[in-house]
Amino acid sequence: MVNGLASRKKRAALITGLVMISPWLVNMLLMIVYPTLYNLGIGMTHYSGMGTPKWIGFDNYTFMFKDKLYGKSLYNTIYYTLLAVPIGVCTAMLLALAMNRKLKEIALYRAILALPSVLPLFALALVFMWVMNPRYGILNIMLGLAGIHVDWLGDPRWAKFSLVLLSQLGAGQYGLIFLAAMRGISPDLYDAASIDGANGIQKFWRITFPMMTPIILYDVIVGVGFGLQVFMQAYIMTQGGPANATMFNALYIYNNAFRYGSSIGYAAAMSNVLFFINVVVAVVIFKTSKYWVYEETNG
Amino acid sequence: MLKKILSILLVLTMVSTAVFANGASDEKPMTEDGKVKVTMWTISTGQELEIMQELAQTYNGEHPEVSVEVVQVVGSETDTSKLMAAVVGGVGPDIYFLDRFTVAQRASEGVLMDLTPLVEDRAYLEDNYMPAAWREVVYEGEIYALPFDTDARMIYYNKDLIREAGFDPAEFDMANGPMDIDRFKEIAMALNVTDESGAYTQIGFSPFVDQGWHYTWGYVHDADFYDEKAHQMTLTEDKGVMEGFQFMYDWAKSMDPQKLATWKSTYYPQDMSPANHPFVTKKCAMVCSGPWRMDTINRYGSDIDYGVTYLPTPDKSVKSWAGGWCVVIPEGSKVPEEAFAFMNYFAGEPGQTKYMNEGNHLVTWMPSMENGDFSGSNAHLAPFKALLAEADSRPPLAIGAFIWDQLTVAQDKMALNESTPAEALAEAQELINQRLN
After folding, report:
1. Beta carbons of A290 and A273 less than 8 angstroms apart
2. What ranges make up the beta strands (E) of B122-254?
3. Cα A57 to Cα A44: distance, rounded to the nearest angstrom
4. CB within 8 Å of B229: residues ≥ 6 apart
5. What is the gyration radius of the CA atoms in chain A, in angstroms?
6. Burial class of residue B335 in the structure, from the number of CB atoms within 10 Å of its CB (0-12 exposed, 13-18 middle, 19+ buried)
7. How does A28-61 read in b/e, with b if 16+ C-beta sit within 10 Å?
């Protein structure tokens, strides 16, 4: 009798819980789980987006091995991610350190430093095209003082790196998260370090950095995800050029899905591989995080 | 409690079904005042869009049972992602304004409705549309579009800058026929100006700007690009293609490839506004472009004393290529008859005559062209019109956009002298063959 009552209560609690999370649950099922499964299926077909997809098994996947453009797009994407993510972590850390200074007008500085990250990426991309203009751009005007002239977007050797630089304008968002983590570190640790005679650099490497590694892990995981899906900057600023130097995987997927004929099946297959790469990288980062992420243990 | 929750879910399901079912209904879309609604999408802007909307208004006035609305949407010549998504979702437009060279591709994808059953007199259309344009709208024997405007490529030259460099602009006069390509290069190189760092501040000409495309320099060198019988692109075997690419390679080499690329990044960046076109800002003395560029120059560079002449060629023969747009009915339209009736008006004599006279465009409806007045504000169209008989058109293939992209990459490599013409073309050919197979 008592057991039955408890069981009914549990069931009612479960139903209430499910109803409470149902908006998220429905959204996830409709917008993530269903498209992912659908995409897995479409990746095994020849499909133009219209009519009935034609089953071709693993042909799309075997074609990837022969497709030099796919290889190039994957190389460009990995190159971008390997540069953008670590540089992004360093930039966010520097911004957080700057925003953590005890200055009277720090609120204003924080707003200025975080501002670019709240602007839409396409707006930043358009502005950045002017910033990077070889002759009139402010970047080259400053570098010109040191005798350096770079054709940022027109030279294949620099085009990818230009987009890496652009991605740093979004570092303010992570800078704020880093700042929150930084301010959560107990002042006692710094006081103790000061008593022991530690200088600023030692405090950073022995206290601040280790205490922030959980947040850095979050930044790296999210950053890698975004890095592997880099698209909009190249779509707006370079269209994949010059000479495919900025043809990223997501842009190549987009071109196949919407610009080239009858290639939605191939685009879906490439998306699935990108998804798989993303999952594997995330798992590897998680698995290896125990070697470098500080975890506070109780007792 | 559970009943309440189920009731709420049931209501939500019914509401969402009603909302989504609306898109899949087979009923004709109607306006509030009981007219059949026909929606046309175009990526055109400015004056072109205004003319299209005026045409719809006039048509609506003459046909009170129909209401045609012309809507501007995002996209580009080869990027029809919005159309694709809308058509697949069952909410596509009834008419779409499409780059004509992609008709074969979109038809093969199944995005376009076959118009053949709607056409009453095919011979009449064939007789009245420009043959090259008509060929582009027919795929595997069926009609998928009605051609609209057309164009051709020529050289615009700044007479003042040419005079300043010590040349006589009369040398460019069309009465002399096309200029020898070596002489053209000689003059262009003399017009280059650099600053103290060696960077170009003005150039004579760049084969990589505006309509200076791979197809342009290929056709100038008598290329075919495509073997119609074998259904194959012939990039590596076609002597004209190779010569066209060699021409671009040599030109970049003569000017220092990286310096020329930097000039382009500076004065002809991606998404540049028309007011900043390097011919308007006098950063280049000559440019290869189409008739629409005249409007840009008149609007933003009214002080420029300029002329228009043939593309330079190795054998002084007249060469150019024509493109243009068309109107199609995407699959899923619930009002194909009404849409096609408007298309006949829009892409027939009334629409094309208005577009030619007021929009400064050449058109494909031959009676409009023959009866057109090419004096006054349309005088500049006359030389472009004269070229149409000689103009080539791009091969209408099911992977036209992919071919265009691979040729553009090969052209980039010429601009940067990254690889030889033979290497770049072999790579492009390999990628294209892979797709075709």
Report:
1. no
2. 138-139, 142-143, 146-147, 149-150, 154-158, 193-194, 200-202, 226-227, 232-233
3. 5
4. none
5. 24
6. buried
7. eeeeeeeeeeebeebbbbbbbbbeebeebeeebb
Give the residue ranges of DSSP H helices in B99-168.
Answer: 103-109, 122-128, 131-137, 159-164
Domains (ranges, CATH) in chain B? Answer: 29-151+323-387 (3.40.190.10), 154-321+399-436 (3.40.190.10)
Cα three-residue angle A28-A33-A39, rounded to 5 degrees: 140
Range of lowest pLDDT (A109-123, A187-201, A219-233, A257-271): A109-123
Which 3 state secondary structure label does DSSP give B59? Answer: helix
Q: pTM higher than 0.90, yes or no?
A: no
Q: CA A48, CA A262: separation in Å to the nearest integer? A: 4
3-state secondary structure of B140: coil
pLDDT the model gives residue A287: 93
User: Contact at 8 Å (CB) between B385 and B404?
Assistant: no
* Spatial contact of B202 and B284, defined as CB atoms under 8 Å apart: yes
- ipTM for the whole complex: 0.84
Two structure tokens written together for B132: 């090259």
Residues of A with CB under 8 A from a CB of B: 12, 15-16, 19, 48-51, 63, 66-69, 126, 129, 133-136, 149, 151-156, 236-244, 254-255, 257-262
Per-position DSSP letters for B264-277, written without gaps between them: HHHHS-TT--GGG-
* Crossing angle between the packed helical segments A68-99 and B421-436, to the nearest 10 degrees: 100
CA distance A86 to chain B (A): 29
Q: What was the pLDDT predicted at B17? A: 47
* CB neighbour list of residue B159: distance below 8 Å, 6 or more residues apart: B169, B305, B306, B307
CA-to-CA distance for B28 and B40, rounded, in angstroms?
Answer: 15
The distance of B32 to chain A (nearest Cα, Å) reads 31
